[in-house]
Amino acid sequence: MPSQTRIANHHLTVDVSSLGAEMQTLTTTDGRSWLWNGDAAFWNGRSPALFPIVGKAPENRISVDGRSYEMAQHGFARRAEFSLAASSQTMCRYELAASETTRAVYPFEFLLAVEHALDGLKLTVSAEVENRDTRPMPFGLGFHPAFLWPLPGAEGQAHTVTLDNHAEPALVRLGNGLIDPEKLASPFKAGRLTLDHAMFEADAMIFPEGAGEGLVYAAEGGPALRFSFENLPNLALWQKPGAPFICIEPWHGTAAQLGGSDDLAERPYSVILQPGKKARFAFTVELPGQG
Predict the structure, then answer these.
(1) What is the Cα–Cα distance from 102 to 26, expressed in whole angstroms?
(2) C-beta of residue 49 within 8 angstroms of C-beta of residue 114
(3) Whole-angstrom distance, CA of residue 205 vs CA of residue 199
(4) With the CA atoms of 29, 34, 40 and 44 taken in that order, what torsion angle do they form, in degrees rounded to the nearest 10?
(5) Which of 38, 58, 234, 241 is buried most, with the most CB atoms less than 10 Å from its CB?
(6) Do 46 and 146 contact (CB within 8 A), yes or no?
(7) What is the largest CA-CA distance in the chain?
(8) What are phi and psi of 251, to 5 degrees?
(9) Residues near 40 by Cβ (< 8 Å), separated by ≥ 6?
(10) Measured between alpha carbons, how far is residue 56 from residues 5, 72, 232, 253 in Å?
């Protein structure tokens, strides 16, 4: 059975499961919960880490050096049991190393570490990937946290996503779970998007480039969550139709392209990590103070 680690400070409490190193709760000391509760009637995820792919592969298969391997959507890390490597009152670090199970679908030696750390009203979730192999290692890495929509105490209020860079990044959609490369008009106007449940009837809204390194998810006249991203150039917004959450997903890597290659190294925005090297990816969310 998975175990859980609790970290806390004077402002925030976070529970993290050893299964997928996935955050289970995010609460402020006034008792408000901000993270989706994983109700399986809608979606049993809460905040999975996506590795070694983001999104789907053609026919759920990838190829590496000409050999084909089965690979489920968003990779295997979210369903893997991690080991607790370090913890303190305000930080926990979970690790997943290559094993017979992972080598059967991803033929590389690696170490994936996922860390949750608190600093005041800020939570930083980071992932560090180390290539322990003797050859370059391709992969994608993404985060998939789900936050309540409506936000606590903001029922009936309009909710918005506002990009720090005030951009209007092009939108792409999925076809059979794969990226349709056709660029569509941006739903952002001067960096601002008013969320509407109908936007997600066609699955996720994906912004491969131009969304920048930070945004604010907020209720009109209500609470706001402020995000910053490190080494995560792609952004997706997703909701299971009708569900009371919104996923704000920063990625480095996307699903394979519709009609494109199944080669892992050729997926859009794949990272190619050299032997012995490490790469870090992180998002920080700052929560409101006492209500």
Answers:
(1) 30
(2) yes
(3) 8
(4) -100
(5) 234
(6) yes
(7) 56
(8) -130, 160
(9) none
(10) 30, 7, 18, 11
At residue 289 the predicted structure's pLDDT band, cuts being 50, 70 and 90, is confident
- What pTM did the predictor assign? 0.98
Cα torsion 26, 213, 86, 82: sign: positive
* Inter-CA distances, 25 with 8, 136, 262, Å: 11, 36, 35
Structure tokens at 191: 């960096």
As a whole number of angstroms, the distance between CA 290 and CA 253 comes to 36
Place of tokens 């919104």: 246
- Cα–Cα nearest to 241, from 197, 280, 180: 197
Amino acid at 256: A
* pLDDT one-digit tens code per residue, 85-136: 999 999 999 999 999 999 999 999 999 999 999 999 999 999 999 999 999 9
What does the DSSP assignment read for 50-74? EBS-SS--GGGEEEETTEEEE--TT
CB 12 within 8 A of CB 224: no
| Location of structure tokens 């960096």 | 191
What is the rounded distance in angstroms from the CA atom of residue 153 to the CA atom of residue 244? 13
CA nearest to 112, candidates 280, 228, 234: 280
Select from 172, 28, 45 the least CA-distant residue to 36: 45
Contact 57, 43 (CB under 8 A): no
Q: Which of 68, 81, 65 is nearest to 22 (CA)?
A: 81
Q: Where are the alpha helices (DSSP H) in the chain?
A: 100-103
Q: Supply the DSSP string of 192-226, one letter for each residue.
A: EEE--GGGGTTS-EEE-SS--SEEEEEETTS-EEE
- What's CA 226's distance to the chain center, in Å? 15
Domains of the chain: 4-286 (2.70.98.10)
